[in-house]
Amino acid sequence: MLISNTQEIPGKKIVEFYGVVSGSTVRAKHIGRDIMAGLKNVVGGELTGYTELLSEARGEAIRRMSYQAEETGANAIVNVRFATSSVAQGAAELFAYGTAVSVE
Amino acid sequence: MELISLLVTPVMLLGAWITGSILERHHLNNLLLRESGSTDVLAITVEDLPEDWHPESSDLVMGNVVISQDYFKRVAAGIKGVFGGNIGVFEPLLERARREALLRMKAEARARGHNTVINVRLETSRMASTASKGRGTAGVEILAFGTAITVNRG
Asked: Is there a contact between A38 and A68 (Cβ–Cβ < 8 Å)?
């Protein structure tokens, strides 16, 4: 599955469109990580626990989106966009969407 | 006993200020070093490629970072916020986070064997609420993503 956030896959030609595909996931880190992040919050800097949380979750959202695209018979997804919303303290919804296409 | 509880806040403020400043300077030096070493990957926000570029393969690459402000600066920003205007103490934080996210994106592109990232986008989202009077996590996530390609730039 070729994934790109451009209008078309660089160097390839789109032959068919299959419509919008999307994948989302809501993730929360366990309480220990939340407490660590709370402590780190006093001195500032990177909250590594949350960085990992979001990066894993975004990966999962992309996998779900790819799976959906595969089912429609597409071999690429173009114009991928991300949306993030924090639904509760320490939990976040990651959403990825794009257009499933066939390229050659 | 009362004296101790009276001292907690100033000590915490001072501690946060000192540690926060050290960490910030350390991060800025680290960024400069890594940026000078990452000139091999070109990142552009343009999508259309010049005619003579013939990309061979492509991959979606991204880099993210969740960063938070230290306690002292949060309080300082709170006071400044009463009077309005430019909240200067938050600007270096966001700038550091963006540079870090871009570097991570470039690192992923390099790891996958690409030398150019096109259509780069930067997104900012707030991780958690800051409503609990500065005590809650005030993390901000910066995401940099783009399409990495391998191209002979000449």
From this structure: no
Instruction: Collect all residues of chain A within an 8 Å Cβ-Cβ radius of residue B112.
Output: none
Q: Inspect the interface and report whether the beta carbons of B68 and A44 lie closer than 8 Å.
A: yes
pLDDT digits (tens, 9 = 90+) for B34-90: 988 888 899 999 888 887 888 888 899 999 998 887 778 778 877 877 887 777 777
May I ask the CATH class of domain B2-149? alpha beta
How many CB atoms are located within 10 Å of the residue B30 CB? 13
- 3-class SS at B64? strand
Distance from CA of B57 to the nearest CA of A (A): 7
Q: How many domains does chain A have?
A: 1
| Beta-carbon separation of B64 and A58 below 8 A | yes
Which A residues, 51 through 80, put their C-beta within 8 Å of a C-beta on chain B?
51, 54-55, 58, 62, 80
Q: What is the CATH number of the domain that holds A94?
A: 3.30.110.70
ipTM (interface predicted TM)? 0.84
Question: Is A78 part of any domain?
Answer: yes
Mean pLDDT along residues A63-84: 93
